[in-house]
Structure prediction request, 938 residues.
Amino acid sequence: MPNAPLLDRHFLERLERLALRWQKSFAGLVGGHNRSRFAGGGQEFLDHRGYHQGDDLRAVNWRAYMRLDKMFLKLFQIEPRVPVRLLLDCSKSMAANPEKFDYARRLAASLCYVGLVRHDTFEVIPFADGIQEANICGGGRHRFTPLSNFLEALQPSGDTSFLKVVRRFLNDYPQRGLVIIISDFLDEAGCDKAIQYIADYGNELFLIQLWAPEDRTPPWTGELDLTDAETGAQLHIHVDSDARRAYTEQFDKFAESIKTVALRNDGKYAGIPTDMPLDDAIFGTLIHARGVA
Amino acid sequence: MEFLNLTLGQVLVTFGAVAAFSVALYLLDRTRRRQVVATLRFWVNPGQPAPVSRNRKIQQKTSLLLQLLGMLLLLLAIAEFQFGGGINKRRDHVLILDTSAWMGASVPGRANATLMDLARANAIAWLRAVPPSDRVLVVRADGLATPATAWELDHKKAVRAILESSPGATALNLTQNLEFARAMQRRSGATSGEIVYSGPGRISSREANNMNLPVIPALRVIPVDEPVENSGLRSVGARRSETAPGTWDVLVRVHNYGKTGRSVNVTLNFGKAPQGLHQLNVPPGADQETTFQLRTKAAGIVEVRLYPQDAFALDNYAALEIPEQRTLHVVVYSDNPEAIRPALASDPRVNAEFRTRAQYTPAGFEKGESGLVILDRFHPSTRPPGNTVWIDPPWSASSGDNQPFSIKERTDHPDGLRWIPDLPLTQGLRARNTQLESASIFDSTTVSDRIAEVEKGAVMVARGNTIAIGFNPFSGQMRYELSTPILVGNILHWAAPEVFRDVDVATQSAGSVASPVPATVDRNSVQVLTDSGTLLPFNVHDRSVQFFVGEPARVRVLAASPLGTTTERVFSLTLPEMWDTKWTPPTGIRKGIPALTDSIRRSTILWPWLTLAGLGLLLAEWILYGSQSTSRLHVVKAIHHREAA
Prediction:
């Protein structure tokens, strides 16, 4: 059992019961635990067929031959190996509230551990205004420690530019698969089109939007000098209850637009405030969103 | 409204300074706060301008108000704010607890409960309402005002004094107790609190007729309900019968204290033996008297009981000690006893024995017996040893030393008779009432021996236990004169004053007693003694000796006149002093046990609550506003650190 500083042992034990889910089948991919409609050399029995010359003799059902004097070949289910890529937002906006970035790292670590336990192949790709060095892991739970160290070493920096990131991602990772994005999706240029590009290239989307409580319902009132965490732009504003209510409405509209993009492309969406315990987020929100099962 | 630690001005000035400082900090701190946010895109609606900022204006009025209110409450807690104003100063209260004899009466319907128990419970209930910082003086009130405690801040001591109080033997003197309480309050030097009287308010008619209560600004009466039906002995007196020798007249007076008429039986015992039973019907609020004839010469205890028993048992029994009736044994040697017999037979206390001259013997009387020898114109060979009266002794040269006084000459119709004044033997004698036909002139050179004299010399002299009368008061015109019985009476008193002492014993109630004395009494000779010989203080006023007895006791009042006559009165003060009327408290005073809203109760100590409320408000303000400011600061610092890194 790996000793992960981001997640405690008890929590990891609970995560072992889960598995990542995706809906699409990605042709030509083998491995992993998800069921496939292709027969092949797998572990689990699928069907019988008559023997043809050239077939693997190891798959002949010799017990049936002894009884029936005919040779039948056992068919096994192929387990496809789908690439899972996790894009983790490391921009400054994620550090406007330090809990938000920590929360994002712990959530990413949790999903990676779920995948590792199921022998999925994971690629954790930090991004801000561009893709940073990725970490590829797979092969079982014992590979979790290097991944955890990698996540701990991440530091938020830079502005968010989803278009740049997506363009680079599609260029570097042409193989289709499951794309999990953990971010606040706060990009001054907008993120809808960029995310749509990912889906258009045949990837399955799993969008996890994080926000700090004050990101959605700011508690401040009175005279404020607001500074954007990424751009440094300032706004002198008098905040009252009406302004706070209007702000929350705008934020909810934005979150709804992100969700629309995900669902429109047969993907999944989960909005998680950082004051929600991680336990509840994974075993509640993510399961409810059918991202894990 | 009051501040114990600060004045109102100090509170206002301090709060003003604190409020000004807080507002200044508030304006400085919250003019424009910087805040780093994840994005600005949601703060501005598309197509709408950003809200206009306003400077130098209080934005979070609720926060400022909470802060100011919290600080004001803390300041009031420091100043120890209290409601009630001046009444919250330390006050000195006087609790007058009725301990008169009547408080021992049983309460009908409540087993073993007396009026004293009710008064004690009321007093303790009142004491619980007194703020702990007030001092209390407990006064036990009966005929006298007796402080049971000093000015006590420790109310437990006052409660202990209340519980230790018990009914006395005297009636309530309310005026005196209230004056005492008021005087103690004036001398205490602190703010005067309440003067509380706890009791039924039963006072004597003497006080009710002359009631002049002092002006008391805060008088509280806690009445005790007392529907008690009682009748009792008011007084028992005994004196020698003037008609029957060896008989006492015992006068019993019964009073009905209830509201309905009562039929009672009065029994009299002497020496444990029943002597009589009288039935009396006593109307409500009235007295009834009855007289018993008790024939005895012996000393003993007269017991008077009243039946049936009622709620107040102390006044159903009285004991009276009567003295022995003594007599004076007079032996008269005379050949003409009929002339003297009437003078001696008029007084039953005189036991006269008439003998002839031939029967003379110088033997004395029995030991302890009072005696007197009268020698009527007779000159015995041997002089008698005791008190002797020589009436017109014949002169005889051969008598020699047997002559009590030498006779100088014999004269007829002497002129200028004069009784020597201020002598016991001449008390009441007047010269004009005396007509001497003939008299012997004694050769007396000592002025002090003379009782009566004429121009030629003394006609009546006395020396030691011998009196010589130079004339015969029982012959001639003198036997019809007023002087003769007076002279005989004076001689009998001189011979045995204790026999003729005016004895009047009475059982009365304890408390203030007034004993009448003759107008001629020598004030310096008056003594008031208890059985144990203790001298009681007294006052001679208006022909009476006044003294006070707080406990049941037998008291003797001795008084002597300048002429030597001694008067003794014995008071058996075994009855409790009872009330005559019920005092009606004046209107407008406080009554009953203080209610929760009564002014005597000091308002609750507020400073702990003020402190909690102030801290609560500040905490609420911090939770609502301050804690978020702190988190914001953390955010800003985190951002700056990362940027610096």
Observations:
- Chain B has nine helices and 35 strands.
- Chain B touches chain A through 32 residues (CB under 8 Å).
